[in-house]
Amino acid sequence: MIIVMRKGASKSELAAVESRIAELGYKPHVIHGDTRNVVGAVGDERGKAVLQSIESMPGVENVVPILKPYKLASKEVKLERTVVEISPGVAVGGDQLVVMAGPCSVESEEQILETAHAVKASGATVLRGGAYKPRSSPYSFQGMEEEGLKLLAMAREETGLPVVTEVVNPRDVDLVAKYADVMQVGARNVQNFALLKMLGKLDKPILLKRGMSTTIQEFLMSAEYILSEGNQKVILCERGIRTFETATRNTLDISAVPVLQEQTHLPIIIDPSHATGHASLVPSMCYAAVAAGADGLIVEVHPHPEVAASDGPQSLRPADFQVMMTKLAEFAKVVGKTF
Ligand code: PEP
Ligand code: MN
Q1: Which of 183, 244, 187 is nearest to 218 (CA)?
Q2: 240: confidence class by pLDDT, cuts 50, 70, 90
Q3: If you take atom 6 of ligand 1, which residue's CA is the nearest one?
């Protein structure tokens, strides 16, 4: 249910509504709007009619059901777009087009530092790099683990770029959170609800990737797991879905951008690297993403893709990344994003 407060309702009226919601066995989530506040009451759908009585409390305008199965992610609860701040001056979901770039995996000090400097010089504002890798084969490189996290921290120190890195296992959440500015949930973990709940307790941005077989509704339900635990800093990422097509690694669902923007206030970025699997296809998908209204991109870049420990074929060389970024600026201008 959504409890819509009157314009000018007092703080104590709002607090009374929050405690009444809790008394009735629901969790109150206050969403502060420009003109009025609303309170989402989330919990067991079956007994929610009891919440209707809140309508007679002082300061309350009305109580309306949330029709979507996802509640806090829905535009029914919050019309204003969520802007997720990653570091001072870098925010996803507002006017900026945020480009995150770096290797699939952190491999060595030299590799991550060289890449970090190169992507920064081309205009990326977030460094990506995997220290824990969810590989399809147990025999493939699994990542440098904490050593990789330390190298990412070193690269941040040198370049000032905040870092996004994946947490694969719930038991590593605290460790990864010690180093990461943004915690990535990979496509394979989009429905790892234990992991999502733990991330919902952090006060840190979460980059949630869509699974390769996840519908948009399921994707938003996964975001809801994080939001319902209290963490509102969720960035959605479309990274291609599995279809019958084999010419590309996945099929980039570009329509996910406007569809999600109709359904949710959360920011949405595109990963053209995992979507296509081929470096030559990445730039055109970056332009398409921006044209479709994406808030940002996450792009794999490697100084020597031919020797990359993972995802070399889809990684751009720094020189090609730079060319792409120059052209991207023109697309950003057309859609009115700063870049
Ligand atoms: C990655 O970002 O390197 C990755 C493994 O992505 P995904 O979870 O989208 O496959
Ligand atoms: Mn990868």
Answers
A1: 187
A2: very high
A3: 186
Question: Average pLDDT for residues 168-185, to the nearest whole number?
Answer: 98
Find the 274 Cα to ligand 1 centroid distance in Å: 7
Alpha-carbon distances of 115 from 5, 23, 257, 299, 315, rounded to whole Å: 50, 53, 28, 12, 11
CA–CA distance, 239 with 256 (Å, rounded to integer): 10
Query: In this structure, are 40 and 108 located in the same domain?
Result: no
What is d(CA 245, CA 249) in angstroms, rounded to the nearest whole number?
8
Domain carrying residue 256: 84-334
Kindly calculate the radius of gyration of the chain based on its CA atoms and give it in whole angstroms.
21
In the chain, the number of structural domains is 2
Residue 134 Cα, ligand 1 centroid: separation in angstroms? 8
**pLDDT value at 53 more than 90:** yes
DSSP bridge partners of 300: 102
Q: Which atom of ligand 1 is nearest to the CA of 188?
A: 8
Last residue of a domain, one of 13, 36, 64: 64
Q: Is the pTM of this model over 0.90?
A: yes
Q: What is the pLDDT of residues 3-35, one digit of tens each?
A: 999 999 999 999 999 999 999 999 999 998 878
Q: What is the pLDDT of residue 236?
A: 99
> Does the structure show a pLDDT above 90 at 36?
no
Helix ranges (DSSP H) in the chain? 11-23, 109-121, 146-159, 173-179, 193-199, 216-227, 256-263, 272-276, 282-292, 318-334
Instruction: Tell me which of 271, 299, 301, 316 to substitute to probe ligand 1's pocket, judged by most ligand atoms within 8 Å of the beta carbon.
Output: 271
User: Is the pLDDT assigned to residue 41 strictly greater than 90?
Assistant: yes
> Which among 140, 209, 235 is the best mutation to test ligand 1's pocket, defined by most ligand atoms within 8 Å of the CB?
209
Ligand 2 centre distance from Cα of residue 141 (Å): 12
Q: Whose CA is nearest to atom 9 of ligand 1?
A: 187
Please report, for the domain that includes residue 287, its CATH number.
3.20.20.70
Phi, psi of 68 (to 5 degrees): -75, 150
Residues with a CB atom less than 6 Å from ligand 1:
104, 130, 134, 186-188, 209, 239, 271, 274
